[in-house]
Amino acid sequence: MASTTETKQKKMLILKSADNDEFEIEESVGVQSETIKNLVEDGFTFVPLPNVYTKALIKIIDYLKKHANKTDSNDEEIKTFDKDFVNTTFDDLFELVSAANYLHISCLMNMLCQTIADRIKDKSPEAVRKIFHINCDYTPEEEAKIRKANAQAFEGQFDESLD
Amino acid sequence: MENECSKGRNRKYTQMDYEQPKRKLAHAQSSSLPSEIITEILIRLPIKILLRFQSVSKFWFALISSPQFVKAHLVKNKDYTHQRIMRTCIGHQMNSIKVYPMQSLNYESVTNPYDLDCPLKNHFMIVGSVNGLICLAFGAHRFLIWNPSIRKFKKVASLEIASGSHIAGFGYDELYDDYKLVSIFCGVKVEIYSLKRNSWRKIDDFQVGEVKSRLPTLVNSKLHWVTRCGDILSIDLTDEKWGRLEQPFYGEGDDGFDLGVLKTDLSMFRYYERMTCGHTNQGYNNEGSKH
């Protein structure tokens, strides 16, 4: 009985994704996001997130739940969770990093940015363009000039893969 | 254990942030990550990789070259910027600059120094280095400021100076984010060059006299030298004023002393017959530092 009462007393929040799905989470889990925390402080319990789509929101709620229950004993478990969390495609990482940035979850931002940085560091500029969906706006002459100016940065072989 | 997430970022939610969806990610996917996120990612990469990524697009080039990015990159990677030491090889060989990764000096029995491709091939001196920039002196009171990471350098406007005893120092002004070069001529005339201003300026009423130590010590945006009369000369790089500190009195015996930096304090090392004694000048630094 005691546990039921406890559950009832827990403050809950409803998060609404950009594609109109609603998720109920505990307030203590949600406030790890600065954006949500500020809304909660202003008295909101219903939080529309027009910048965060369902797919990313599900993953982020998982992350917040896991990290809300951080203790000394589950350190390894959380590390494993984090490792699995970032083991995904670049497009997924970009969607997650945009959501984490919008929600202002600094530890998630750090982890995602570091993961992306680590994964692109050996890539060629061509691969980076494809990964980030960037159109090259240099003329071939301009590009050659920049490469020549930084010739030492182009020594060696680069990773052309897109994953 | 403290939950890292709870620390959060000190950015407050604003109405505008909240109400204006920046873009539809589900459709656009990653086609246009905002520059603030690109910055957060790139800031974690070493300079050599950033130089390569300048050729990704004009936007990436502009972002990576911007002063804001450079500053943020420096702050983010501050722990790594002091991990190298340098030395010149002067002698029969041509002058060269070698870099020793500090890490390997501390933890490995063999260190593998590597040469930096110095823009000067003839005789030169190292004036100083800070934040990865190296200031070199050559010829008759000529200087250049060199960034070995991007292999670029800038020649400093020449200083009109007569021949005589001449000492120089190089440091960073944290308040105005500027690099400054100090030239002391015969202990009577002090001039400061600012990289931002790109010109020299004379310091008025300099009365400290000749300095004894060649290399100054940089603490809290001030360069410090030991003077011939045993005091400490400080040149404040922020307000471009000079100051004098009397050395602490230790009693009998004066075998001279050297300056150093202990964490963020100016420190003095005195030499006695059998031992070295250290003294930090914390009060002075606190007085001079920003709060």
UniProtKB/TrEMBL annotation, chain A:
Ranges where the SKP1 component dimerisation domain occurs: 108-153
Domain called SKP1 component POZ: residue spans: 11-69
Record keywords, A-Z: Ubl conjugation pathway
Family statement drawn from the similarity comment of this UniProt entry: Belongs to the SKP1 family.
Self-association state and partner proteins as the record states: Part of a SCF (SKP1-cullin-F-box) protein ligase complex.
Biological role stated in the UniProt entry: Involved in ubiquitination and subsequent proteasomal degradation of target proteins. Together with CUL1, RBX1 and a F-box protein, it forms a SCF E3 ubiquitin ligase complex. The functional specificity of this complex depends on the type of F-box protein. In the SCF complex, it serves as an adapter that links the F-box protein to CUL1.
PANTHER family to which the protein is assigned, alphabetical: SKP1 (PTHR11165)
Name this polypeptide is given: SKP1-like protein
Species this chain originates from: Datura stramonium (Jimsonweed)
From TrEMBL, chain B:
Residue span, F-box domain: 27-73
Keywords: Membrane, Transmembrane, Transmembrane helix
Source superkingdom: Eukaryota
Pfam families: F-box, FBA_1
Transmembrane segments: 124-145
Chain intervals for the UniProt region annotation (Disordered): 1-20
Protein name: F-box domain-containing protein
